[in-house]
Please model this.
Amino acid sequence: MRVTPSALSLPLPTPELVMFDLDYTLLRPSDQFEAPGYVRAGARFGLELDAGRWPRAERAAYAAAKERRLRIGEAHDDGLLAVIAHAIIEGLGGGPPHAVEETAAAIAAAWSRAENFGLYDDVMPCLRALRDAGVRAALVSNALGHSLEEVVAHFALDDFICASVSSADVGVVKPAAAMFETMLERLDVAPQAAVMVGDSAEDDVSGALACGCGAILLDRGGRAVGAPLPRIESLTELPAALSL
Ligand SMILES: [Mg+2]
Model:
């Protein structure tokens, strides 16, 4: 990947287009998708899951998702949610296979409903600042289970989001170039005039940089301090990071 040094330090020049990732960038999953929600869902199917094992379960899910990506490659993968849910349930203690299966299916189904998510508090002020500055905003999402149109409608984002590209439609997931290129072609924007903002260093940042776009890691948890990437910890920082 060839990346000019100026693409790695903030602020970036003001772009024409900001492409946003969705999950954990704009959308905050409810506690249904954290330890308390897993324990509640498991109880419905007779499982006694142990919330105290959450960190271990999260690591297991991360490893399972990575292994699945290695096997499947960059193809859009509707089965990934159940794989992640499965790994977390097993990590929290598991139980009889049919109950694990049913709990994983319930969690995966819940992920597809917009009402099980909220917008982070910093989203609307940021989208307003971009709109007021004449910078367009769009969604580029590995949309597992979500319909992007439903998300935009549910959160009344029509005035702020001018286009959406979903891996379900493109057939591949970020970091594949086709995801970013589909958006750039649709809006007739040059890569250098677009910046991707997302919470995944690999899918969002590396993928976009490889296409010649700018990119900023949204590191909400501050886990990537010191990483050689342009990074912010809140969308409150985004306007300044884009020279606005
Ligand atoms: Mg994300």
